[in-house]
Write a sequence for this structure.
């Protein structure tokens, strides 16, 4: 009998087939996906080129050049309005204090050089306001013998208020006095308009700071509004007649430089003699 022989051809074929299957599996796992790399994705198609980016940056730069001045003007107008409401608030504070404490109160106005440290001798660009009141409720000066108010008889009402880049302006226009706009507001004689050239210096100025013993003066307020215990408002003191309306002119500056002409955002702060009601007019 011959020994049994195994089908060698079939075994070799099976091994060859197994090797081929393994190689195909490995290739399927490690080979890149042809479609993914051969065709750009939607994100790649949407990318900007360098030229497109430069064009967009140029357009943005041009828009900034055109738009920024407009925002600067808006800020300037807002600053002027804010300054006017600051002055209104100080006037209301003084009037309220005078009535509530049955005494006399004064609001002083001083303008100094905004480019210099505060306090300084005076100039343009920073408006300083101070509110003081009579300690004993009396008027503190003799109407027939006017003199500087003694600081030991005064009490400070709140802190100093400073308005940067603001200028006291004496109005040179002639409003119609028949309406409620800037150009039609009540016309105020220069004597009763607190500005850069009016009114005449007060014969009853007061200083800052006040107290007893009298401290050295840092400011002397030569322009003022006086409020009586009844809330009546007068320019400087009782030597001036009680007016139906008085005015404080205000305009923004460029540092210590006043605009060459009256800007569009000039402000007039008017207050009535009886009641001291405050109204703000904007051009």
């Amino acid at each position: 009998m011959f020994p049994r022989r195994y089908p060698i051809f079939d075994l070799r074929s099976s091994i060859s087939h197994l090797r081929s299957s393994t190689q195909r599996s490995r290739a399927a796992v490690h080979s890149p996906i042809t479609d993914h790399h051969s065709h750009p994705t939607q994100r790649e198609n949407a990318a900007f080129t360098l030229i497109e980016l430069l064009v967009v940056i140029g357009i943005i730069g041009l828009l900034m050049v055109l738009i920024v001045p407009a925002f600067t003007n808006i800020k300037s107008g807002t600053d002027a309005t804010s300054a006017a409401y600051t002055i209104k608030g100080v006037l209301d504070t003084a009037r309220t204090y005078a009535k509530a404490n049955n005494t006399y109160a004064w609001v002083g106005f001083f303008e100094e050089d905004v480019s210099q440290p505060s306090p300084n001798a005076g100039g343009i660009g920073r408006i300083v306001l101070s509110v003081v009141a009579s300690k004993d409720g009396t008027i503190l000066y003799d109407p027939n013998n006017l003199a500087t108010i003694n600081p030991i008889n005064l009490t400070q009402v709140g802190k100093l208020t400073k308005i940067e880049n603001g200028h006291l302006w004496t109005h040179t226009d002639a409003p119609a006095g028949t309406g409620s706009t800037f150009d039609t507001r009540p016309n105020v004689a220069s004597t009763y308009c607190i500005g850069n050239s009016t009114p005449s210096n007060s014969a009853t100025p007061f200083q800052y700071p006040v107290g007893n013993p009298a401290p050295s003066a840092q400011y002397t307020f030569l322009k003022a509004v006086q409020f009586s215990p009844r809330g009546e408002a007068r320019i400087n003191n009782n030597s001036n007649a009680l007016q139906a309306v008085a005015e404080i002119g205000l305009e923004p500056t460029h540092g210590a430089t006043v605009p060459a002409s009256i800007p569009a955002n000039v402000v007039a702060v008017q207050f009535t003699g009886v009641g001291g009601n405050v109204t703000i007019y904007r051009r």
User: Anything to note?
Assistant: Residues 69-282 form one domain.
